[in-house]
């Protein structure tokens, strides 16, 4: 019999019941909750007279709607009354049902996908859900982590289970060593460019190979985070020393004997050497260049030395039409150099790239330089209050501020512009977030997805530039 | 949940691939704490010429005359014809809520994004996967005939055109069963409460660290 993939192992370890109709009940170890996708779930519980199955499996925090300035004002600092109601509703629901919440003024507040790992609330081998598609982030710890909809949030609250059908196994293997200046973000954008935004649909993706193994946990989280942009609900990386080292000593992490027992189990969380995948995709990591997205889908991406594509060269009519539409929306010309794209704003943040390592990489580029005069704004939004504190301890805030970037408070911010941080119509933004969809960062806004280092390089030059030219 | 058995309704063609959930319902409308009322903002940025705001009277806003659902012939559409990877992007269930609130009962496409596909079933909205060539044909026929209606039968798993041509589709038995009977799937899962407790008690022994609270 062939060995098991990591996904097979995680599936088997969480299987409560396999039903005759092919569906299965999967036990959920951790649910993360935020203000946008939970109110209707709590309301559903209330209407049906149900109680949460297991309170201590849940952890909540407001992130999407929170302002990134004036945070000492707490909820009163949320100017938009509709946003304020949503955050108040989360507080009220967590208080009523007895769920642990890091409220807006708590230093531990932050983006759900940053605080889970930071607290050790994300542990290897867990099954994790959240009403947010970027829950795949937690797969970096060898977790089975799914983004779910609000009805499923309610279902997990009420039953601690998710109804699932087993997905297929895909291995994305990135061989070789990454070049200097090339980060997890560039790797995942290159992967999506290769497999397309639906390439992973129906699959659980495991990321492996030398280039992945050599990444820090932050880099792995960035890659798993964007699994969904490649169509896969679930992305993961096998557990190794890097994983265990990261988890050690965090507030929710096991201690003493439990730690030893846990580590013993965690060390089994990798695909067996003879495991069989339904699909394998290989990339040469040493050939990956810093990436920049030019269009309105994350698969519309190229190396920084590349050109905006020419729709005339595309044979597939639907794809051609897609390119034409994207170029029109983005205000770009076919065959234009990526490095000629002029920018209006720079955003460094989001659940993809707002962790301490991301901020260090960006700070290293802007240090001793100034934000280009042509930019309207360049902002840095740390992923959590604790990331912010750590960055300030290291003096990164001063580097950013001296260079002319704004140093903000934690939240999702301009990644999806549900708070006050957004693009104006027609503005181009170098963004470390995950989606370049039309209107994503503001009505008519034009998003280019890049790594923190590339965003920082764009901030100091006003256009895209190969960060390696500034730093190496 | 509202049951879905059979439905006959006007088809509207949404002729672009990779329609994402930001496009289906932009983020400013996700601030609502309700499940209803999203219909007027379905496809907001494509449908109107101005920037939409929550709690606005949409009847006064300038419509984009080029957008398909603004054409008189599609105003009462209840079956959406779409292209590949429909519903990609975020997990927001507001996307199926908005389609439902507008009046759609089914979406037909060659492929869907996983989370969106799953969310539809929780809301009595039926996502149907048909071969790309079949979807192409339905697009052509819809464009050619005003008032073109499709008949969907979930029991028989078929889509039938006005000329009587019928196409079969696949759907998971569990999902079909829940949808046909309008079942609350939390209720169905709780029938297995003992199995869940047994699993949990076993895990407390084998992996006790999963039950620690933070400190």
TrEMBL record, chain A:
PROSITE patterns linked: ACONITASE_1 (PS00450), ACONITASE_2 (PS01244)
Catalytic activity: (2R,3S)-3-isopropylmalate = (2S)-2-isopropylmalate
Keyword flag 4Fe-4S: yes
Cofactor requirement: [4Fe-4S] cluster
Keywords (A to Z) from UniProt: 4Fe-4S, Amino-acid biosynthesis, Branched-chain amino acid biosynthesis, Iron, Iron-sulfur, Leucine biosynthesis, Lyase, Metal-binding
Coiled coil: none
Range of residues in the leader sequence: none
GO biological process, one term: L-leucine biosynthetic process
GO molecular function: 3-isopropylmalate dehydratase activity; 4 iron, 4 sulfur cluster binding; metal ion binding
EC number: 4.2.1.33
Matching Pfam families: Aconitase
Cofactor: binding comment: Binds 1 [4Fe-4S] cluster per subunit.
Top EC class of this enzyme: lyase
Pathway(s) the chain acts in: Amino-acid biosynthesis; L-leucine biosynthesis; L-leucine from 3-methyl-2-oxobutanoate: step 2/4
Residue span, Aconitase/3-isopropylmalate dehydratase large subunit alpha/beta/alpha domain: 8-462
Residues annotated as binding [4Fe-4S] cluster: 351, 412, 415
Subunit organization: Heterodimer of LeuC and LeuD.
Physiological role: Catalyzes the isomerization between 2-isopropylmalate and 3-isopropylmalate, via the formation of 2-isopropylmaleate.
Family listed: Belongs to the aconitase/IPM isomerase family. LeuC type 1 subfamily.
Name recorded for this polypeptide: 3-isopropylmalate dehydratase large subunit
Naturally occurring in which organism (per UniProt): Marinobacter salinexigens
Gene that this polypeptide is encoded by: leuC
Automatic annotation (TrEMBL), chain B:
Family that this chain belongs to: Belongs to the LeuD family. LeuD type 1 subfamily.
GO biological process terms held by the UniProt record: L-leucine biosynthetic process
Pfam family, one: Aconitase_C
The UniProt record lists the keyword 4Fe-4S: no
Protein name: 3-isopropylmalate dehydratase small subunit
Top-level taxon: Bacteria
Domain Aconitase A/isopropylmalate dehydratase small subunit swivel: 1-132
GO MF terms held by the record: 3-isopropylmalate dehydratase activity
Pathway this chain belongs to: Amino-acid biosynthesis; L-leucine biosynthesis; L-leucine from 3-methyl-2-oxobutanoate: step 2/4
GO cellular component: 3-isopropylmalate dehydratase complex
UniProt-listed SUPFAM superfamilies: LeuD/IlvD-like (SSF52016)
Keyword terms, alphabetized: Amino-acid biosynthesis, Branched-chain amino acid biosynthesis, Leucine biosynthesis, Lyase
EC number: 4.2.1.33
InterPro entries linked to this entry: 3-IsopropMal_deHydase_ssu, Aconitase/3IPM_dehydase_swvl, AconitaseA/IPMdHydase_ssu_swvl, IPMI_Swivel, LeuD
Function: Catalyzes the isomerization between 2-isopropylmalate and 3-isopropylmalate, via the formation of 2-isopropylmaleate.
Catalysed reactions, as listed in the record: (2R,3S)-3-isopropylmalate = (2S)-2-isopropylmalate
Quaternary context: Heterodimer of LeuC and LeuD.
């Amino acid at each position: 019999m062939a060995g098991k993939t990591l996904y097979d192992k995680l599936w088997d370890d969480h299987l409560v019941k396999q039903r005759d109709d092919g569906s299965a009940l999967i036990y959920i170890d951790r649910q993360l909750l935020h203000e946008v996708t939970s109110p209707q779930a709590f309301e559903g519980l209330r209407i049906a007279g149900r109680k949460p199955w297991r309170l201590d499996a849940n952890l909540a925090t407001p992130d999407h709607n929170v302002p990134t300035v004036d945070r000492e004002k707490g909820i009163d600092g949320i100017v938009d009354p509709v946003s304020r109601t949503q955050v108040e509703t989360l507080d009220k629901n967590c208080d009523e049902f007895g769920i642990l919440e890091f409220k807006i003024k708590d230093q531990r507040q932050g983006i759900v996908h940053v605080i889970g790992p930071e607290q050790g609330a994300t542990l290897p081998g867990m099954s994790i859900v959240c009403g947010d598609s970027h829950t795949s982030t937690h797969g970096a710890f060898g977790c089975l982590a799914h983004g779910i909809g609000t009805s499923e949030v309610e279902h997990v609250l009420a039953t601690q289970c998710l109804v699932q059908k087993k997905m297929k196994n895909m291995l994305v293997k990135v061989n070789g060593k990454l070049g200097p200046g090339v980060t997890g973000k560039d790797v995942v954008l290159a992967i999506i460019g290769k497999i397309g935004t639906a390439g992973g649909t129906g699959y659980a993706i495991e990321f492996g190979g030398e280039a992945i193994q050599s990444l820090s946990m932050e880099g792995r989280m960035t890659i798993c985070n964007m699994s969904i942009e490649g169509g896969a609900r679930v992305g993961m990386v096998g557990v190794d020393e890097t994983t265990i080292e990261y988890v050690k000593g965090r507030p929710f992490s096991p201690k003493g004997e439990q730690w030893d027992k846990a580590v013993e189990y965690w060390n089994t969380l990798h695909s067996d050497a003879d495991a069989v995948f339904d699909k394998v995709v290989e990339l040469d990591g040493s050939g990956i260049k810093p990436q920049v997205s030019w269009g309105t889908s994350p698969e519309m991406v190229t190396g920084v030395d590349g050109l905006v594509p020419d729709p005339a060269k595309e044979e597939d009519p639907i794809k051609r039409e897609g390119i034409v539409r994207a170029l029109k929306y983005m205000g770009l010309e076919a065959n234009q150099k990526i490095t000629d794209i002029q920018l209006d704003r720079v955003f460094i943040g989001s659940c993809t790239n707002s962790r301490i390592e991301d901020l260090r990489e960006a700070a290293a580029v802007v240090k001793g330089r100034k934000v280009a005069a042509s930019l309207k704004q360049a902002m840095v939004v740390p992923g959590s209050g604790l990331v912010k504190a750590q960055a300030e301890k290291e003096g990164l805030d001063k580097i950013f501020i001296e260079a002319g970037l704004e140093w903000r408070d934690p939240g999702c911010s301009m990644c999806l512009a549900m708070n006050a941080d957004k693009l104006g119509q027609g503005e181009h933004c170098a963004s470390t977030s995950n989606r370049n969809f039309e209107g994503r960062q503001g009505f008519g806004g034009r998003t280019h997805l890049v790594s923190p280092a590339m965003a920082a390089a764009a901030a100091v030059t006003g256009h895209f530039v190969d960060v390696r030219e500034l730093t190496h | 949940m509202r049951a879905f058995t059979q439905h006959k309704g006007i088809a509207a063609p949404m002729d672009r691939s990779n329609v994402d959930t930001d496009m289906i319902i932009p983020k400013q409308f996700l601030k609502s704490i309700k499940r209803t009322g999203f219909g007027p903002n379905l496809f907001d940025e494509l449908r109107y010429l101005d920037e939409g705001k929550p709690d606005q009277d949409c009847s006064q806003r300038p419509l984009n005359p080029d957008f398909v659902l603004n054409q008189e012939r599609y105003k009462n559409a209840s079956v959406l014809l779409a292209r590949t990877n429909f519903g990609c992007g975020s997990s927001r269930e507001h996307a199926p809520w908005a389609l439902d609130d507008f009046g759609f009962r089914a979406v037909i496409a060659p492929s869907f994004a996983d989370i969106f596909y799953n969310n539809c079933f929780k809301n009595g909205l039926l996502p149907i996967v048909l071969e790309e060539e079949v979807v192409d044909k339905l697009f052509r026929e819809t464009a050619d005939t005003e008032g073109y209606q499709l008949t969907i039968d979930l029991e028989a798993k078929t889509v039938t055109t006005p000329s009587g041509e019928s196409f079969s589709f696949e759907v998971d038995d569990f999902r079909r069963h829940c949808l046909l009977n309008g079942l609350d799937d939390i209720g169905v899962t709780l029938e297995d409460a003992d199995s869940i407790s047994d699993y949990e008690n076993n895990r407390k022994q084998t992996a006790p660290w999963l039950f620690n609270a933070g400190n």
